[in-house]
Design goal:
The protein has 384 residues and is an alpha/beta fold. The protein contains 17 helices and 13 strands. Strands 3-2-1-4-5-6-7 form a seven-stranded parallel beta sheet, sandwiched between helices. The chain has a six-stranded parallel beta sheet with strand order 10-9-8-11-12-13, sandwiched between helices. Helix 10 links the parallel strand 8 and strand 9.
Length: 384
């Protein structure tokens, strides 16, 4: 009898994202997409390591794959650093790719990376910067011992870093930090909930939409409301606001409606909407998406709005400029300038027929450019 040749299947590689601060379901959507995609599209055994802080139902409903899981970090020392170090001492040899989130916590990442590399010299470390303009400036502005440690970490320990916007990629490459052969541009992508479903774009209505944490300083909701109140000819257009309202913002709203009683029927607050189908309905019905933020690391709502064929009117924050470069559908407006924004929205209302485009084509384009499996190919090639 001929001896059968036995082929040893290569061991599936293990990918671990350490993120102890993962404390609510929305952060899973933002933080978890890369390890989930590495599991689903590139055949890793991937997991997120975090404390058991919340109800993670989103994971069960939308991030389901046999190769992806959520593992809980044990609280042994009542100290995050010691808990992570204990885990790495026990598990580093079994981890092929170790991911961290944010580099502004570079001292902890330095400690973790030294331990990991000492125990697993062939292991790879990847850091997703999630950096807005301010965080990028802080990294570039490091001086003294902080800069020495940061440069050592980047040059000798980290194998790959990614940043979400072209602007900050260029700033970091030219910063004097040791990013040159380690840094890649990797924007945030579309939630798998969107890319795995078929949407029929309904007939759009005269809606201007915004989605986010309303009333927070970052979101500049008051600028949007002031701009809307300055529009002289609203016709039948309405402003739809989705998101929880900051408690301290309620006094501003009371005053706003006292000054503008005619806008009660025109400005519609929907509150926090947890149902993804319900949010998608408003995206699909809206013609314009308005984003007045003062800072963003990327701005997931911008991609979602582009996906549903909304004309984007945004301040120059996060990935707004990158998204508009790809879709060619929208414009950047001045920050903290309700007069300028009001004039632009008036122009859109009066001349919408000149701006209207096929939303289905915009959806197909956005899906192609911002699908996570397409984006993560660059990361997969870099770490391999």
């Amino acid at each position: 009898m001929d001896k059968k040749t036995v082929y040893n299947k290569p061991r599936k590689q293990n990918y671990v994202l350490i993120y102890p601060g993962l404390w609510n379901i929305h952060l899973i959507k933002d933080v978890g997409m890369i390890p989930f995609t590495m599991a689903k599209s590139f055949n890793y055994n991937a997991c997120i390591l975090t404390y058991d802080n919340d109800n993670y139902k989103y994971l069960q409903d939308h991030l389901k794959d046999e190769n992806f899981s959520l593992n809980f970090l044990k609280k042994r020392y009542k100290n995050q650093r010691y808990d992570v170090i204990r885990y790495l001492i026990r598990k580093s040899r079994d981890i092929d790719v170790l991911q961290f989130f944010h580099l502004n916590d570079f001292m902890n990442i330095f400690y973790y990376s030294v331990i990991y590399k000492l125990l697993n010299k062939n292991g790879k470390i990847y850091v997703k910067l999630d950096a807005d303009d301010m965080i990028t400036s802080i990294l570039i502005g490091k001086r003294g011992i902080g800069k020495i440690i940061l440069n050592f970490l980047i040059k000798y320990l980290i194998d790959c870093c990614s940043v979400e916007t072209c602007k900050n990629y260029k700033r970091l490459i030219n910063s004097g930090l040791n990013f040159s052969d380690k840094l890649i541009y990797l924007p945030n992508g579309l939630d798998t909930y969107l890319t795995t479903r078929k949407f029929q774009l309904t007939k759009k209505k005269n809606y201007i939409l915004t989605v986010g944490r309303l009333g927070y300083e970052q979101k500049a909701t008051e600028i949007l409301l002031e701009a809307f109140s300055k529009i002289k000819d609203l016709k039948d257009w309405k402003l739809i606001l989705i998101g929880g309202v900051e408690e301290s913002f309620q006094n501003y709203l009371n005053t706003f409606f006292e000054k503008n009683p005619d806008l009660h029927e025109k400005v519609i607050f929907k509150g926090y909407v947890s149902d993804r189908d319900e949010i998608c309905k408003y995206y699909s019905k809206s013609k314009v998406f308005c984003f007045t933020s003062r800072w963003e690391s990327f701005g997931i709502a911008l991609i979602e709005a582009a996906f549903f064929g909304n004309y984007i009117v945004s301040t120059d924050v996060g990935g707004a400029n990158d998204i508009l470069d790809i879709t060619g559908y929208g414009e950047l407006v001045k920050m903290d300038d309700p007069n300028f924004l009001g004039d632009r929205l008036q122009e859109l209302i009066l001349n919408w027929h000149e701006y209207e485009k096929d939303p289905q084509k915009l959806m197909n384009l956005t899906k192609k450019e911002f699908k996570w499996s397409n984006l993560c190919k660059k990361l997969y090639k870099k770490i391999n």
